[in-house]
Every structure is written in C-alpha cells, then in structure tokens.
C-alpha cells in the first residue's frame, strides 16, 4: 500500500501527493490553495471548512472515498457542539489524508473570495481586508529565557502567521499583559495591513467589522461590512447635519469665511453624524461600534477636508487648492470616531479641487481604466463630476450644473418622495399629459389613480420627472429646440397658456397645480448645457467626436430614464444600450476600498494618472455651453437617438445663443 496519496483541491484544480496522515489544511497551504483560518489550525474558528467530493474521477484516475479521510475526531466534535457543521463539511485543519481524495473548497472558506455585487455594479470585489484577525498561543514567561510579553507575542505571530517586524500601538502594549493572562496565553490579534497590531483580545475573538461611508453634502450613508465575508450586514443613512450651516457646499464654505474658526463646528457635525450612523448600523447588526476595526470614506473635496478637520476655504475660490490630494490612512479616533480604539480609517484621495474622493470612489467602482470602450462616468449633484477615458487615458472635470436636476430652482420641483411626479408622457396630437407619481403604480389616466394617490396627494415634480416632462414636451413640439415654450400651441390645448411675457404648460391642475414655466425650462437647460459642455470639453481634450459608453452614478442616475436624458441633451449621443446607471458608485468605491486593501493602492495610483481639466479656465467651455443650450444640441448629430425616438425636425436656434452665452459666462465666472 502506498504511503502517500493524491489530493486534488477544487475549484482551483491544484493537486499534489502527500504522506498519509497529513492534515488537509497543511496540504492545501503547501499547494497555495486559498483556505481561510483565524485560529491557525486549532479547530476553533471554523473558517477552514471543506467537503469531500465523493466518487470516481476517471479523468484524474482516482476514486475519492470518505474512508480516505480520518473520521470525525474530538476537535471537530468539540467545534460542532458550539456551531453545527453542515452535512459533509469537515474542518480541514483537523482532517487527515488517508487515501486519494478530491476536496471542494467552498467560496466562504476562501480568503480571497469574491464578494457578491449588484448587477448595476461594474467590477467584482475580491476580498482582501486591511484588518485581519490572528489567534495565537504565546509562550509563557520564563526566567531562564527572559523576553517581554510583546516580544513573545511577536514571536508567535511570526512563527504561526509569518508576520514579521510588526509595529504595535502603545495602548495595545498597555493592555497586553492583562489580555495574555486573562486568555491564559491565548489571544486574538488584529493586524492592520500586515504591519501594525491594532487590537488584542484574550482568547478567541472572531468579530471584525468595517464601515464604508459616503459623506455627501446632503446625505451621509454608511455600510457596515463583515470583514471576514465582505457581506454588508447593515446600511444606514441620514441627512448631513451641516445643512444647518448652508444648503449647498459653497454656502457652507461662505459660512466658514464669514465666521472664522467655525470650521470646527462643521467638522464636529459631520463626525458626530458618522458616529451616530456607526452605532446605528452596529445595533442593527447586533454588534457594537467597538467591533468596527476599519473604516473607509469618500466625499467631495469640501466634505473630505471637513472630515479631516481641514479648513476648506481655499476650495471656495480660484485656484481651488486642496490641502492634500493623497489617500490618507490614520487612526479612526484621530477623526473623533468612536469605533474600536485601535480602528483605522482610510480616506480615498481627491482628484482635484472640484473633483473629490467621491469621484475617486466612482473610478474605483467602475474602473474605466480596465476597458477598451471609451466611457463617460457622470455623477450628478450640485456639480457634475465627469470622468472620460479607457485603458489608455483618463480625464476628469467638474461642471457647475447647479441644483436644478435635484428639483431645486424649478417652480413645482421637489425632492423624490411620495406624491412627486416621476414619469411623464404627452400625447403628440392632443398634447394631453399622463404621469405617474412616486408611491403609486398607476398612470394618471388609469382607473383608480385618484383614489390611490389620495393619501400622498400630487405634490410636485422630482428630478427624473422634470427631465421626462421637458423631454416629452420637446418631442410633442411644445418646447422648441431653443427651449422656448411655443405659445402658438395655446390654440390647440389650453394647458399651454400665457404666463407673463412667456408661456407655461399645466401638467396637472389640482390641490397643487403643477405648471412648467419658461423659467423652469431655462433652469434645466442651463444645468444640462453645463453637463454636456463638461463632457464635450473632455471629448475635445481626448480628440474624439463620440463616446462608446455612459455610466450615470448616484441617486439621480438610478432614477432617470436615459432615453429622456439623451433627448434633452444632458448627454452626448450614444447607443442607448450602452447608457446605464452605475448605482451608488461612490459608495461602492468606499466599500471596495474597505474590503480590498490592494484597491487602496490602485486608486491612489489611478488618481495620479487622471488628467484634470478645469472648466472655469477653459475658453472652449463657453462655446460648448452655448451649443449645448439647444435641445438636444445645436450642432452635434444624434443618430443613435434618432433610431429609437422621433426627434422633431431641426430649426434655427434663435434665442439660445444670446441667453445661454450670458448665463454661461455668469456661471463660469462664479467659479473663476
Ligand atoms: Fe480554524 Fe480550522 S483553521 S478551525
């Protein structure tokens, strides 16, 4: 009988011969098979589970039998008494090879497993958390071989886990002796980035969580993740309390300018909100904030600076100098965060004065640098951050769209909430509208609509609703290419009526009358012209006349219908099948940085590669802005769009040039 056996690990397909009696985990390690472990093979953590693939594997010339593995032993039985082992599962550290076997390593036992992502998200996350737990048994002190507790802990970490030359926070040293004695020389250690001990617990400890935070100027969202599985265990959000210092970013910067020293209040407000969110997420997941060992952050440049406690006034005017654009790793408590005392925080790098760590998050989530397709990434907020590029080159700029896309500056605009119109259709002949409101699945001309909307009412139009309303008005001929509401149509339908010197269109008459005025159209035109001008500026710089793919990030991108956004000329022409929502890409970027430490290095180097284009000082921005005031655009053709939508025939864009040009100068002047 042979004194060794063939072992094949699936799905990697790695194979090797091992002496009988070798533990499966040891065999796997020697073949470089990726199997997780916190306890170092002591049968405590349960991370190393595998199962036997039973049967004849003719291709490999072996018969894999359960008899070829050692029977369930004392260690596995002890583990199973604490946490039941699923049928067929074995602890690979405690199972010995007795003959030829094929072993399945399930996804959840792999260290570098892939984290399940949503369909809208572009790349998969490969788990490689910066903070990892290691259980060790430390040699007891011995007068004949004197060595400090820390030195013996380091020895154990090097010997069992190959972690050499670690640094150690002072407060860990302060608590080390008690932890070692309480744990009877067995402790679990959290190591950050394979370089620093950040936590020690007596005995075995398996809770390691991280929080990915998207610090928006309006809302802050936090995703609590299990660092061992990558799973999101709780997601929470709340309004940014800085709103009391100013609705938008620039008014908050102005507040600080007018009240020297007040930046501390804004910093405290955002940090306080993050602490509350962390505690809320922890409670929802049944842990405490002290179980959170790592955190990652994205945010626009002003939020980035305020989170770090840096006065953002330099970002309030040209030349928009950032205090730092590097990625930052520091102790979470240095940010005033009440997580585990040793927890670390990673803040993604900023791209430029107007293009922040939120855009870095979008780039990390979307990785345009890995694609051949020339891709536009757009994150629409009060400013639109735009990235254009592919594997050869990346460009970025920010364009001052203003808050019109969020429903602000629109006479009947409101935020997306029950009762807000979100979908609009207008009959091309009768010019009669029908619409849908948030909270009701029925169209307004369907039976039961009035009853179904009685509770919420019909209260306003949200951002996606206004895009559709205007695009449908354009397609129905109510709005001309230059953006004027055509008063001649008042004779056809009284919904079009005089409104001072201009005309308006009544979408709905009721308790709240929803009327789209000429000023509303102008506000959206200005915003969409700024957005498209920013994209065109980057296309010029890239030397291309069209793009192959468009991804819309953020809540706005998730709700708008890309067809209508293109009809209105927010975006350049593109095959509509290639225009899609990227979901909350900035938040996804934060999550990737939290779960994959290699991604931290990737984004740091990618951001340095991005060529920054400053719209405020680019003379061509003005020209693009004027051209983009027309719907969808004064000169650029829309052949892809024309294939799916009956676009009105071209007509001269009379008024566009004058008004758009003046406003373009004004708006660019605001920043320059
Ligand atoms: Fe921890 Fe096997 S390695 S139980």
Instruction: Output the structural class.
Output: alpha/beta
Please bin the fraction of helical residues: 25-40%
CATH superfamily of the domain at 210-347: Domain of unknown function (DUF4445)
**CATH topology value of the domain at 210-347:** Nucleotidyltransferase, domain 5
Query: Unreliable segments (pLDDT under 50, ≥5 consecutive)?
Result: 653-672
Tell me the total number of β-strands. 31
Distance between the termini: 84 Å
Heteromolecules bound: FE2/S2 (inorganic) cluster
Oligomer: single chain
Task: Give a quick account of the main beta sheet: strands, pairing sense, barrel closure.
Answer: 6 strands, mixed
**Total DSSP helices:** 18
CATH architectural name of the domain at 210-347: 2-Layer Sandwich
Strand content: 15-25%
Kindly provide the name of the CATH class of the domain at 210-347.
Answer: Alpha Beta
Question: Mean pLDDT, rounded to whole units?
Answer: 91
For the largest sheet, list the strands in their spatial order. 16-15-14-17-19-18
What characteristic shape results from the CA principal axes?
Answer: elongated
Cα-based radius of gyration, to the nearest Å: 30 Å
């Amino acid at each position: 009988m042979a004194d060794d056996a063939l072992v094949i690990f699936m799905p990697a397909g790695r194979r090797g011969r091992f002496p009988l009696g070798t533990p499966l985990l040891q065999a796997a390690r020697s073949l470089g098979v990726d199997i997780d472990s916190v306890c170092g093979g002591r049968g405590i953590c349960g991370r190393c589970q595998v199962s036997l693939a039973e049967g004849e594997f003719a291709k490999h010339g072996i018969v894999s039998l359960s008899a070829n593995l050692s029977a369930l032993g004392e260690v596995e039985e002890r583990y199973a008494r604490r946490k039941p082992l699923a049928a067929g599962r074995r602890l690979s550290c405690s199972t010995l090879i007795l003959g030829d076997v094929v072993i399945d390593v399930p996804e959840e036992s792999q260290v570098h497993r892939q984290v399940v992502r949503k369909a809208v998200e572009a790349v998969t996350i490969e788990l490689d958390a910066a903070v990892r737990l290691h259980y060790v048994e430390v040699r007891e002190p011995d007068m004949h071989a004197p060595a400090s507790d820390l030195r013996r802990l380091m020895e154990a970490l090097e010997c069992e886990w190959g972690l050499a030359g670690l640094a150690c926070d002072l407060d860990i040293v302060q608590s080390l002796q008690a932890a070692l004695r309480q744990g009877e020389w067995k402790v679990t250690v959290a190591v950050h980035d394979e370089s620093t001990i950040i936590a020690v617990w007596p005995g075995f400890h398996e809770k390691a969580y991280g929080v990915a935070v998207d610090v928006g100027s309006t809302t802050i969202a936090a995703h609590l993740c299990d660092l061992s599985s990558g799973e999101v265990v709780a997601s929470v959000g709340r309004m940014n309390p800085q709103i009391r210092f100013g609705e938008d970013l620039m008014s908050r910067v102005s507040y600080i300018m007018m009240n020297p020293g007040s930046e501390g209040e804004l910093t405290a407000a955002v940090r306080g909100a993050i602490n509350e969110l962390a505690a809320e997420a922890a409670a929802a997941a049944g842990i405490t904030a002290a179980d959170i060992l790592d955190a990652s952050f994205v945010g626009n440049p002003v939020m980035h600076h305020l989170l770090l406690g840096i006065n953002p006034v330099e970002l309030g005017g040209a030349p928009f100098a950032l205090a730092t654009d590097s990625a930052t790793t520091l102790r979470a408590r240095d940010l005033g965060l009440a997580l585990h005392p040793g927890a670390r925080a990673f803040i993604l790098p900023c791209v430029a004065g107007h293009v922040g760590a939120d855009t870095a998050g979008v780039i990390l989530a979307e990785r345009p640098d890995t694609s051949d397709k020339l891709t536009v990434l757009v994150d629409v907020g009060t400013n639109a951050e735009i990235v254009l590029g592919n594997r050869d080159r990346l460009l970025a700029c920010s364009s001052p769209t203003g808050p019109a896309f969020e429903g602000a500056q629109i006479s009947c605009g409101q935020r997306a909430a029950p009762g807000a119109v979100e979908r609009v259709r207008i009959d091309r002949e009768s010019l009669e509208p029908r619409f849908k409101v948030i909270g009701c699945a029925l169209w307004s001309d369907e039976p039961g609509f009035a009853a179904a909307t009685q509770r919420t009412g019909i209260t306003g139009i949200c951002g996606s609703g206004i895009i559709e309303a205007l695009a449908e008005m354009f397609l129905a001929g109510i709005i001309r290419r230059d953006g004027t509401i055509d008063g001649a149509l008042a004779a056809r339908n009284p919904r079009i009526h005089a409104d001072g010197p201009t005309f308006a269109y009544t979408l709905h008459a009721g308790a709240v009358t929803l009327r789209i005025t000429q000023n509303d159209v102008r506000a959206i035109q200005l915003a969409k012209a700024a957005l498209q001008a920013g994209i065109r500026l980057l296309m010029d710089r890239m030397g291309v006349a069209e793009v192959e793919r468009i991804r819309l990030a953020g809540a706005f991108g998730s709700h708008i219908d890309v067809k209508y956004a293109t009809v209105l000329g927010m975006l350049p022409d593109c095959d509509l099948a290639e225009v899609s929502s990227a979901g909350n890409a900035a938040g996804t970027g934060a999550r990737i940085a939290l779960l994959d430490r290699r991604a931290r290095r990737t984004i740091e180097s990618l951001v340095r590669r991005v060529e920054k284009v400053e719209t405020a000082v680019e003379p061509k921005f003005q020209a693009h802005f004027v051209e983009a005031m027309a719907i969808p655009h004064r000169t650029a053709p829309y052949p892809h769009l024309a294939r799916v939508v009956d676009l009105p025939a071209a007509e001269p864009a009379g008024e566009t040039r004058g008004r758009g040009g003046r406003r373009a100068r004004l708006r660019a002047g605001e920043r320059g």
